Amino acid sequence: MTTQVRIWNHRAEGAENLAGKMRVLYPDVEIVACESVELAVSSANMIVTATSSKTPILHHSHVQPGTFIAAVGAPRKDWREMSPELVAKSVLIVDSVDAATVEAGDIVCT
Fold it and tell me: Which domains does the chain have, with CATH numbers?
């Protein structure tokens, strides 16, 4: 089994910097800095987002059916990581329903 981690950042140098650090820590894992979100997630079976984006960066068309997404960013009502279409077509699991329905921008605005 080949393990590959793909990293994307809105600043290319940020993605490459993190990828370089990860390569040192995990020399047996292929770490790739990607130029676009689409390239980073196109064939992924797991996606982790941790952003402060105010607009969606991850769209339904980017994600394969059955992909696990851990969207841990967008903790404010006015922040978004995922498009409304992606959220609507997902099975949602949250650690706190009360907090998610008040704070999680991806959920509040869907």
Answer: 1-35 (no CATH), 41-110 (3.40.50.720)
